[in-house]
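Purpose: get a first structural picture of the assembly so the mutagenesis plan has something to point at.
Setup: two entries, given in the order below. No constraints added.
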Amino acid sequence: MAKREALKILKKAGIVLTAEEKKRFAAVDFGLGRIREIGLEMLVYVNTPRYCAKELVLLPRQTCPEHLHPKIDESNPGKQETFRCRWGIVYLYVPGPPTPKIHARLPKGKEDCFKVRHEIVLRPGQQYTLAPETLHWFQAGPRGAVVSEFSSLSIDSRDVFTDPEIQEWRRRAPIIDEIQR
Amino acid sequence: MAKREALKILKKAGIVLTAEEKKRFAAVDFGLGRIREIGLEMLVYVNTPRYCAKELVLLPRQTCPEHLHPKIDESNPGKQETFRCRWGIVYLYVPGPPTPKIHARLPKGKEDCFKVRHEIVLRPGQQYTLAPETLHWFQAGPRGAVVSEFSSLSIDSRDVFTDPEIQEWRRRAPIIDEIQR
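Result (structure tokens, whole complex):
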């Protein structure tokens, strides 16, 4: 079970969650039913109109599919976020000159859904900040990874995915954003 | 040396910094010259107009002195922040009914500079969010502590301390706020 394996990775990384948080900790398969390839495990620590922080876990070689955070309105140009690798290795892909031989393995049959191919390698202690409206996707190395995400307000329901199958899943099963004061 | 000891605590907590970050990691004595009692070690991971994240380290029984984050202007009601304990124990004090027998030991001769006495105990995985303009101070337990701070934009130069000696030090040695895009 992906959630249980991700909790083990968090433990290896030395990151402590409370009992309540372990329940809330969620595995997401983006509606594709192949979570060990395309998926993500995560916990939102705090999400307010002014900032957001999450812990993300990737199983070995698990991929967070390509997406971007669009402009919301005049006061919110879209989510800006910083990924900080805490444990393991993360291969992050962003717009820019395509890296000739990327480390990530593209999920079979989904190659067209991973358009940006400029590779950033994040090892523990390394971080990268993404501007709003920037296409990105990422994959863990062979042992998995833990990534702290620091950002502006997170409105997951507004994320735009490259994979039309994921977009269709989002229409069928709308997300309810949880925003604190 | 406080910085070296704090880096050891981070290591025990399993938190990895890059070589560059270890250089930037700073010990602050608030101008009082008694850093083992009143002080803080910290690293700013990211500070943009939209969000901020820091790692804070406290040596055993070290105290971050009482302060608040004032309103900046019409668009910024003051810094809102979430403290998440990652390692050790933190005793956090906020406005509210004074806790009869607090765990923290007040620094000698500075008792009047710690006015709020409502105790919140944070163990690993526990967190607490502070509204802007809320007086607060905190002290680590006997082994020290590591605290992740998630917040809105941090403008340290505007912090208001209860201790007039710290306020005076701030006037003599103004802080230059580092804000990224």
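The longest helix of chain B spans residues 2-12.
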